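Translate sequence into structure tokens.
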Amino acid sequence: MALDARDAEFPAIEPLRPPKGAPNVVIVLIDDMGFGAPSLTGGPCHMPAMEQVAGNGLLYNRFHTTALCSPTRAALLTGRNHHSAGIGSVCEVATGIPGNDSVRPNSVATIAEMLRLNGYSTGCVGKAHQTPTWEVSMSGPFDRWPTGEGFEKFYGFVGGETNQWSPTLYMNNIPVEPWGTAEEGYHFSEDIVDKAISWVRGLQVMTPDKPFFLYVSFGATHAPHHVPREWMDKYMDRFDKGWDAVREETLANMKAKGIVPLDTELTGRPEGVEAWDDLNETQKKVYARLMEAYAGFAEHTDAQVMRLIETLEDMGVYEDTLFIYIAGDNGASAEGGLDGTFNELMALNGIPQVLEDVLPRLDEIGGPKAFNHYPVGWAHAMNCPYQYTKQVASHFGGTRNAMAVSWPRGIKARGEIRQQFHHVIDILPTVLEAAGLPEPYMVNGIAQKPLEGVSMAYTFENPDAESRHMTQYFEIFGNRGIYHEGWTAVTHHSTPWLTREWPSFDADDWELYDTSKDWSQAHDLSKEMPDKLRELQYLFMIEASKYNVFPLDDRRYERFNPAVAGRPDLPGDRTTMTFYPGMTHLMENTVLNVKNRSHTVTAEVEVAEGKTDGVIVAQGGRFAGWAFYVKDSAARYVHNFFDFEYSYVEASEKLPAGTVNIRYHFDFDGDKPGGGGTGTIYVNDKKVGEGRIEKTVPFVFSADETMDIGSDLALPVTDDYPEGVANRFQGKVNWVRVDLEEDNVSHLEPEETKYQRIMARQ
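Result follows.
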């Protein structure tokens, strides 16, 4: 080796790049959208961006997901079935069973990591719902957050849903706040596309020779259906005809477009869903407005995709971009219940909604003062022409979603339909083939499970190619099915909006469909062809055994208890926790549960001379929660009962200057969940205020709002203080301690409420 660098010869450093011709890759995933919703497939939601993608390429009309959020996202990102990736259900009900533990093994690398290691820039914006719940805190670990799964950049939320007007956000794994409020023009869907556009523009400036992978995972169109008023008003009176008429129109449109065969039949309404003509006028008026909000939300979301497409065109890179647009991570959601809801938090707490109370607030639906979701009847209509909805993995209503693909430089076909059967696990191998990359047998030194999907690239130029994805199992909460060479054998084990004891797995009735002739699974052949049914049932057993599905787990209530389910629980058995300034974005399942028991909230604060206002600690937000704060220099506590009743306890004296100990004690009546009690405020151990709270939130404060120390981030619990940074405590919070007493009656929660509140968060 030469001693002098001038005498040495070394090759120049070559930056890592994928094979020549590897395209940029963009995957757009819409949340909770059924096959019959987008205008591309004949549905009522105008989505010109999706139509443009298909017009520049292909529409796949036999594409499938898993029927549930986290599992579909895991399958999409890994190219393996959801149980193989450890995410057989949503992360909130993970168990100790490998196929359901929500812990993606290192032997199942993601598409982001594979592309990053082969020279791609990788970024994700929007919703990430694959992280184990006990890892969603400042303690991490962060290797199963997006930035630990191969994404170099992440901006969005980690969980099942978020308020579109005031989301709980992370930049990589650091909590951040939205740039503004709804009144100032903020909306989450617009924000994440702004971030995506900024990112890809920067990449083009700095490394124009390096392709990028962008995953745009919208929180839309999951509840809450939040959308600017002008988008919703486009659909004014469009749904007054009702869900039955909309289903008929949608199927007629599908036939006219060649999306489905001309002999396709509508399947019947599921149990509990009434004929539209049998509803009363109040029901029709409320239900129609809730659907207008959804349709406007869908069109608004699609408009953001159009902004991204136009940016790629302006940059001159769209021609070299494999653009995959998936309209739904499952079928349309039935989690709004049979009546829908104005405030989803009421439904999550088992508190019935009175439709007459919604009528005066119809104009608020879709806006920042509502947390709305449409009823089951509309979900079923958005899954036209199929049976059932999201969560029901047995039938196509839960699993069939429209997908459009374009790649102008790589796909010659324009505006054509592809009818080959495919599944979300096929996306990853398709991308690898398009990029000229082999399936990795080892990633970061870890031997990999083989990919379980098949590339769809063979269909790009051959509309008549025989399907290569011949067999596919489906399973969510015991709803299960098997597809094989056009046949499906399925068993509907449970229904999301009904609460009852479901049969044992052995007692389930299986149905048989020949989908090569019966597109919508309308004619059950199980009684006519028992041998064929038995053949497919055996095949399900083989596939389920192969892909880690067993043991089947339809437990609804036990899985909500971490100790029973076998997953970690951050608070554990603790009855006291102390929090410090800067601790924000604390998810509800990571802190002590103050509901349905006596408890004390104590804070030590520094009070300056003069007025010292602001929030000391708050949990929840506009739609339910509590806050301990200072107004006009006096301590106050508020309990927000679903934006319906506000109970205040106010101190009679102003706080003294200096170091002050402020304590709020709630003496729970102890009779039932959601019961009342007496709240008392003490300042330096002196009683200064007392008040009755007749109703309390029984089971969940929020699906997305958090506990914050020293402020109330996102939407405020009360209008007593302003939104955003303006409500920060003007003095100094030294610490806040929460102490629980033993009179907990949370165990008296009705079993059906536990199921509904957990399953609505996906």
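Note: The chain has a mean pLDDT of 94.
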